[in-house]
UniProtKB/TrEMBL annotation:
Name of the protein described by the UniProt record: Uncharacterized protein
Lineage, top ranks: Eukaryota, Metazoa, Cnidaria, Anthozoa, Hexacorallia
One Gene Ontology cellular component annotation held by this UniProt entry: membrane
Annotated compartments: Membrane
Gene3D superfamilies in alphabetical order: Frizzled cysteine-rich domain, Plasminogen Kringle 4
Keywords: ATP-binding, Disulfide bond, Kringle, Nucleotide-binding, Phosphoprotein, Signal
Species, as recorded: Desmophyllum pertusum
Protein topology in the membrane: Single-pass type I membrane protein
SMART domains documented for this protein: KR
Length: 343
């Protein structure tokens, strides 16, 4: 009979341990459920480690050592073959102080392609009488400027630092095609007038040895929005297009560059990231670079017209970099029938 209290005590201890175990399982389940729900809510991720709300970036910044090894400031100096004098930097005014996806040595030999301009005669290389010393004398001012912009950006691409690994900024396929539409006829005329004209930078950009094409467009990425890396479309091509339509705030015309409404939600329901914020997505489309973004907050826009199908925004979902917004397209305006009142 003396063992009975001891048995009761053992049973009571087992029951207490069982209750404690079940309680821990319940707490663990609740914590797991809360974490899962928190992961689903990717719009913003907050942390209490610093005592204040914080945003988790979509991609970690590039390793500084890797970035310094890959990206370099412009430092090329073009030197004409068989001459000791160093000519002025060809691409300096176009590239400025941007970091380029090319080492100093690569920059030097690529820029020398611009001044390697010869006329091949049957007996060898030589100079045809009255032949301009450079292609600038053979083309219109607009095409010469456009060629320089396109070739400088093609050979010395900008270093895109918006992702965790630096990347080279490619030329947009649409820019390449417009470039050829505007200037290919002029260049073809030059080659017909001065047979065997040879310009090394053009031959490299054409993608085919001996081709008369100004640039090979087929493998270039399309201009479809602020992807990583975002492709290059020169401002001077935008200036050649028709002026933007009237400012609107309820719908948009064309590609939506003139939209100034307050919609700040994407088609999938994501809240827009503020244009002045670099989290969760890093980008260069800030008010300093695009004045139309001043005092915009996180409202949908199409700064620079990079997205062809309307206003968009970077989202606060770190898994979705950007998306078009839920803004309706305006109804086409009625054409003026040309009927005037007679006096």
């Amino acid at each position: 009979m003396a063992e009975s209290p001891r048995k009761y005590q053992q049973c009571f201890t087992v029951i207490l341990l069982t209750v404690a175990f079940l309680s821990l399982c319940t707490v663990a389940h609740d914590v797991g459920t809360n974490l899962e729900d928190h992961n689903i809510q990717d719009n913003y991720n907050y942390t209490s480690t610093t005592g204040r709300a914080g945003c988790v970036e979509a991609e970690r910044p590039a390793n500084p050592v890797l970035a310094r090894a890959i990206c370099h400031p412009y430092s090329a100096s073009a030197q004409k073959p068989d001459e000791k004098e160093v000519k002025p930097d060809v691409c300096r005014s176009i590239l400025g102080d941007e970091l380029l996806f090319a080492t100093p040595a690569e920059q030097e030999w690529r820029e020398n392609l611009f001044v390697t301009y010869t006329i091949r005669l049957r007996g060898g290389a030589g100079q045809i009488p009255r032949m301009p010393a450079s292609p600038i004398g053979l083309l219109t001012k607009f095409c010469w400027r456009l060629i320089m912009h396109m070739y400088c950006r093609f050979l010395l691409p900008k270093c895109d630092m918006t992702s965790s690994r630096p990347r080279a900024q490619p030329i947009c396929r649409e820019a390449c095609r417009e470039f050829r539409n505007h200037c290919q006829r002029e260049w073809t005329h030059v080659q017909r007038k001065y047979k065997a004209v040879s310009w090394r930078v053009q031959r490299l950009a054409s993608g085919v040895e001996g081709s008369s094409s100004l640039m090979w467009c087929k493998n270039l990425p399309r201009r479809k929005g602020p992807d990583i890396p975002e492709c290059y479309y020169p401002e001077m091509l935008k200036d050649r297009k028709e002026g933007p339509p009237s400012i609107t705030d309820t719908c948009f015309y064309g590609d939506g560059q003139s939209y100034r409404g307050n919609v700040s939600v994407t088609r999938s329901g994501y809240t827009c990231q503020s244009w002045t914020s670099q989290c969760p997505h890093r980008h260069h489309r800030i008010p300093d670079n695009f004045p139309e973004l001043n005092n915009t907050g996180n409202a949908c826009r199409n700064p620079g017209g990079q997205a062809p199908h309307g206003p968009w925004c970077y989202t606060t979902n770190r898994k979705q970099r950007w998306e078009y917004c839920s803004v309706e397209k305006c109804e086409p305006r009625e054409e003026n029938n040309g009927n005037f009142n007679s006096f």
